[in-house]
Write a structure and sequence with these properties.
The protein has about 140 residues and is of the alpha+beta class. It has one domain. Helices cover about 25% and strands about 30% of the residues. The chain has four helices and seven strands. The strands form two sheets. A five-stranded antiparallel beta sheet has the order 1-2-5-6-7, covered by helices on one side. Strands 3-4 form a two-stranded antiparallel sheet. Strand 6 (about 100-105) and strand 7 (about 110-120) form a beta hairpin. The chain starts with 14 loop residues before the first helix and ends in a 15-residue tail after the last helix.
Amino acid sequence: MSTRTVTTADLPFPIEQVHTTDAAELEHNRAAAETLRAGATTGVLWSLGATNLGAVPGTHGLGGLLFIARILPLTANGRGEAARRMAVMVSVTPGDLLDIDVRQLTGDRREHATTRDLYLDQLQRALLALDYDGREPFNPRYWTN
């Protein structure tokens, strides 16, 4: 199986949320992404098949972590049969909370799941809840919006 490198043009988010050239902003984004990666833990990222981890400005321009995960897509009949590659962006909010946005990487690139205003200690549970084969985007045993 070959793995293709994901570029900013491939991502289903606006360019200002995934790219910056300002040196100070880049450093801030890296620090935020490292904190988020540590909060998510390696085991949780592995369970999602996370690849292409990167520091991004995020939805609020305050830093974030972006990665590609393998998640079962929602269909009219519940979950799809095969996992699809989806972009997961965890963003820092102005209130020092976290937002998670998950979008399909191919096809119509629609939103798969979103949750707002998490604390860092809730990040692991919310990410693990994405790895679910039910009719909701998040496993209700792990996460409710």
